[in-house]
Amino acid sequence: MFSAMFSLIYFIYNTVYPMYSLIYVDLLMYLTFYLFFCTDQIDGCLGPSTVVLDHSSGFEGLLFVDDDLLGVIGHSNFSSIRATTCVYKGKWVYEVLISSQGLMQIGWCTLNCRFNQEEGVGDTPDSYAYDGNRVRKWNVTTTNYGKSWAAGDIVSCLIDLDEGTITFCLNGQSLGVAFSNIKTGPGFAYFPAISLSFKESVAFNFGSRPLRYPSHFYAYTYRFYIIPPTTDLTKANRLLGYLKTVLSTSIDTQEEKLMARDGGTWQIQGDPTILVTLAHIFNHFAPLMCKVYLVEDVLMNFLLSILEGGGSVDEHPLIQQLLDLFWLLMEDHEVSECLKQLMMSLLRAYRFSPIIPDLGFQIHYLRLTTAILRHEKSRKYLSITFDVLRSVVFFYIKTPLRVKEAGLEENIWKHEDTREETSEERLRRRAYERGCHRLKKRIEVVEELQVQILRLMLNNKDKGTGEASRYIFLNKFRKFLQENASNRGNPTVLCPPEYMVCFLHRLITAIRSYWDEGKRRSPGSISSEDAYVPPQLFYNGKVDYFDLQRLGGLLSHLKKTLKDDLAAKANIIIDPAEIQATSMDDLDEDEETGAAQRPSGAVAMGGALARPSWLSSPTLGRANRFLSTAAVSLMTPRRPLAPPEKVKIRTLAVEHRTEEDIEGSHGNDGLLLGRPFEEPDQPITEKSLLEILDGVVMMYNLSVHQQLGKMVVVSDDVHEYAIALKDTDEKIARCPSRRPDILEELQKSQKVFAEKLNHLSRRLAWINATIYSKEKMLDVYWLLQVCIRTIEHADSTGSLFAFMPEFYLNVVMNSYSALKNYFSPSNCIEELPGYEDTLAQLAAILAKHFADPRIVGTDIKDSLMQALASYVCYPQSLRAVERIPEEQRMAMMRNLLAPYEQRPWAQTNWILVRLWRGCGFGYRYTRLPHLLKTKPEDANLPSLQKPCPSLLLQRHMAELLSQDKDMAASFLNSVLNQLNWAFSEFIGMIQEIQQAAERPERNFVDTRQLKVCATCFDLSVSLLRVLEMTITLVPEIFLDWTRPSAELLLRRLAQLLNQVLNRVTAERNLFDRVVNLRLPGLESVDHYPILVAVTGILVRILVDSNKQGISRAASVLLSDPCFQLRSIQYLLGEGDAGDAGAASADRKHFSLHAYTDYISTEEEQKVEQMLTFLTEESKQAAASTPTSEDDLCPICYAHSISAIFKPCSHKSCKACINQHLMNNKDCFFCKATITGVDDYTKPASS
């Protein structure tokens, strides 16, 4: 090394000095000084010189530690870890970068401290901690101390072992001495330590990086564990200065003198003497740039200073020139390490920078990142070797928890109703709106820079130095999605959802800009407004969907069962060997292929689980996981007149794909290989953008939608606190002057509510600007339209629709839900362009695919059913269902009326009920009468919407049931079966609840049991309403006995109605007692909903039918052994109360007359008419000659014998034999097979 130094000095003296005398003396003196440099020694500490976290023995609980052993995340109840090096004398400091603001205790401990899942740092005698979450300090006992911390803050932990004190600083500001008189001397040495709860994360700095908040309070008196490289810092700064001087100097060869010039105009093809000089400077500068401390403190700050003058990044070419020199004059390993550390430092600085009113820090770091990525070679290198994509923190804008530091003081909550606001409230509202507008403008600047970064990474024209950036990005992006899709149950390796939301919006903006640029270059392609993902991506094997579920089941199963369809519709031939390799079900098939020809299946590679960089301090270590994609054999996708030539093509793994594999060339369609006949032969856009768009849809499904739902809680909290504050203000106004104690407490509450409301309203302003803005809503809306068009195109392929991943249907349903529920009221979904058409398209998808046989997944089928059930609850979306083509409407209703067995009948039943709600007897309510005084949990729930019946769909239902007698009989039979089951389960459960309530000992009824009980009751009511709808729309199903099953269905209906009435109307019965308990969870259980449903059915068959139908219905109802006239009288409060005894004298009886707001006068009159009619019929039946016991059915003993069996000639009533033959063909008595049933009439002679 010394010889190299002397060679440089000799060169400068003989060659450079005549032209560079201005810097000769400084450079020569510096190099001479470096020759005699020696390092400092650390005194007062014990342990390794490289201080990291002790991941081998110094921890308790489950933690995840970064590869650099400086970042940590808790993964158990309360985990603890300490550093590898301790201190025993002197003054020491280390820094902790807070990644999350949750429960953590940071400080110092001795080797003798023993921690567990309940006790951590500060909970033992010789450990001391600061807790910014609870704003306390801990040493066995706890007291108030310090300030609250937030994500992004820096905690400095200082220990003075000479004075015996411990102090903490927050963002460079001293919080005061926390502990004094700590134990020191022989046997006492203190380790940096932390205890943190589940999912909390931090990053330590023991001196390997520069101070984040240099403060004179401790910078010159306290020491870091790792001594800052002072000499290297001086050397690097001087060499950088020389470098800048050379770049800003030119040589006048004619006059042989140096001339000053603008460094930005320097070209790398300049004077060779300058290049030689730069080479010698870089000879000493390059090794220094491999050290993270120098990169962050010297190089990054120098590059940031270049951009301080403002203007666009293009106006500062010096950064590009420096990067050119790096690649020219530094070794490959040196420039790679330098760029890697530079990007890591930028990422760390951006994440942990404080939020100031103009977001200046964030903008500054993003501008430098943009400048670096504008350099083509550096961008490609970073994209390949440094996982920039996974550090999506660059696209995240964190929320300021301390609003004063973010300049949001004026953003206070506005009055909800502007019609009632005072002049002061009006001024506050206007100030709030102005603050929100300024905030949005500041955020838009940051978002524009983030989009610029993504546009650079999506550049596909920079092919001069190898593969274009976009294809590097695409492969990285696919791996990113794979990691997040394959580790859904392991949150420590997932990208945080709040980062994913911001990343998705920036990516959508970048994709659409490139898409529309392509449209301008190629007018024949489609615009981004009509974007969709073509269906061939789902089955041609070019895009790997990992282990994500397809609509038709497992991919291996689909390849096997649909191989003929693939060949006929898409010219794709599946290799039999591939089928054997990817499906465990095929082991016994295609034996002629041979085991030797079978390629290996999916392989998962990787080592120990590493924590991703976005959860703590950024690191480069990454477990290399991938799943190999399936291999397929493909035919040429073009369709010549002659039979196409078969060409076998094996799909490459993601990391091996090239531009040609994606975009295609020379007749190869790339990603679009295998275009089906139904797909238009029209250019869409660049094929790489299609795969990125497909990934964006997957991102939304992975975590974005869930995060959008979580952030709505802030808006709900604001509403709750606004109501509480208003209520408190009213109480203060009413408080009597003689009660100052009450007034004082109310004023304290008022202050607390006002402070909390102001804090939440400021946070809500930030959320509305970053997550729920109009622009973000348009992004989600565009994604919804993309998925709708994609599903429509895939559906047109017929059986190949089964290859579509399930997440497309999930995103369609979830994105519509987000637009409807999350972005309001600040943004209205009805104002979106083309909203009505989109609503109709979505309605068509739900109506067609909720019972699509091509979809086999139970979860996705249930989701589609639930989405349709919610869809028909709202007037606007219900009208959209009515606008779809009649053929699709009829098909939907036919699927809804299919027998309930072997399908999710409960959801189907809810849909039918909602189509009827508003038309039934007393069925015009939004909430049940007895629940009006209680506050609903969420007024936006579908079940709490105003009734909006569909007469059109009811008419379709009537047509189907009238025309298809077999379907009508099987449908109603299944409804009656489910009603019998649901009500029986309900009765059984309330018996158990009543028994538990009557026990003398204290008992608690399981909340799950209460919920199931209430669900069974609601199901019983809804099934009764479906029966009411059916008998209203198509009464002949029950009353026209020329139909095969009409009499049987009517008898079964009467039997069930009588059972329900008897159970519910009996005085002092089980139902009454459970209702009067008013147990939480059973709020919906009451007399009204079930009795009016039964009454509606009875009125339809006994009052609203024709004379013959009324006669038949009355005959069947009265002949049922369970019929009691008292149950009908109970409906009008006319039951005989004498049986109840004196104890019930004061008890209020149920009566339909009491519900005048719910039951019309006409309906009351019909009930009275029905009661009069049944009373007369009962009297006549009682006066008639009783049937001989010999003539009664030997099965039920309720009806006369009316049927004779063939060939055995045994007899019963028609109802019994018809119900028996639905499930069994053997005779009741002799077990002979029944071949026929004839009518039986008793001979006159007998």
UniProtKB/TrEMBL annotation:
<protein>
    <recommendedName>
        <fullName>E3 ubiquitin-protein ligase RNF123</fullName>
        <ecNumber>2.3.2.27</ecNumber>
    </recommendedName>
</protein>
<dbReference type="InterPro" id="IPR013320">
    <property type="entry name" value="ConA-like_dom_sf"/>
</dbReference>
<keyword id="KW-0963">Cytoplasm</keyword>
<dbReference type="InterPro" id="IPR001841">
    <property type="entry name" value="Znf_RING"/>
</dbReference>
<keyword id="KW-0597">Phosphoprotein</keyword>
<dbReference type="InterPro" id="IPR035773">
    <property type="entry name" value="SPRY_RNF123"/>
</dbReference>
<keyword id="KW-1133">Transmembrane helix</keyword>
<keyword id="KW-0488">Methylation</keyword>
<dbReference type="GO" id="GO:0061630">
    <property type="term" value="F:ubiquitin protein ligase activity"/>
</dbReference>
<keyword id="KW-0472">Membrane</keyword>
<feature type="domain" description="B30.2/SPRY">
    <location>
        <begin position="31"/>
        <end position="211"/>
    </location>
</feature>
<comment type="pathway">
    <text>Protein modification; protein ubiquitination.</text>
</comment>
<feature type="transmembrane region" description="Helical">
    <location>
        <begin position="12"/>
        <end position="37"/>
    </location>
</feature>
<dbReference type="Pfam" id="PF13920">
    <property type="entry name" value="zf-C3HC4_3"/>
</dbReference>
<dbReference type="InterPro" id="IPR013083">
    <property type="entry name" value="Znf_RING/FYVE/PHD"/>
</dbReference>
<dbReference type="InterPro" id="IPR003877">
    <property type="entry name" value="SPRY_dom"/>
</dbReference>
<keyword id="KW-0832">Ubl conjugation</keyword>
<keyword id="KW-0863">Zinc-finger</keyword>
<comment type="subunit">
    <text>Component of the KPC complex composed of RNF123/KPC1 and UBAC1/KPC2. Interacts with UBAC1 and CDKN1B via its N-terminal domain. Interacts with RIGI (via N-terminus) and IFIH1 (via N-terminus).</text>
</comment>
<keyword id="KW-0833">Ubl conjugation pathway</keyword>
<feature type="domain" description="RING-type">
    <location>
        <begin position="1193"/>
        <end position="1231"/>
    </location>
</feature>
<dbReference type="Pfam" id="PF25576">
    <property type="entry name" value="TPR_RNF123"/>
</dbReference>
<dbReference type="GO" id="GO:0051603">
    <property type="term" value="P:proteolysis involved in protein catabolic process"/>
</dbReference>
<dbReference type="InterPro" id="IPR057987">
    <property type="entry name" value="TPR_RNF123/RKP"/>
</dbReference>
<keyword id="KW-0862">Zinc</keyword>
<dbReference type="InterPro" id="IPR043136">
    <property type="entry name" value="B30.2/SPRY_sf"/>
</dbReference>
<keyword id="KW-0479">Metal-binding</keyword>
<dbReference type="GO" id="GO:0016567">
    <property type="term" value="P:protein ubiquitination"/>
</dbReference>
<keyword id="KW-0812">Transmembrane</keyword>
<dbReference type="InterPro" id="IPR045129">
    <property type="entry name" value="RNF123/RKP/RSPRY1"/>
</dbReference>
<dbReference type="GO" id="GO:0005737">
    <property type="term" value="C:cytoplasm"/>
</dbReference>
<dbReference type="InterPro" id="IPR001870">
    <property type="entry name" value="B30.2/SPRY"/>
</dbReference>
<dbReference type="Pfam" id="PF00622">
    <property type="entry name" value="SPRY"/>
</dbReference>
<keyword id="KW-0808">Transferase</keyword>
<dbReference type="GO" id="GO:0008270">
    <property type="term" value="F:zinc ion binding"/>
</dbReference>
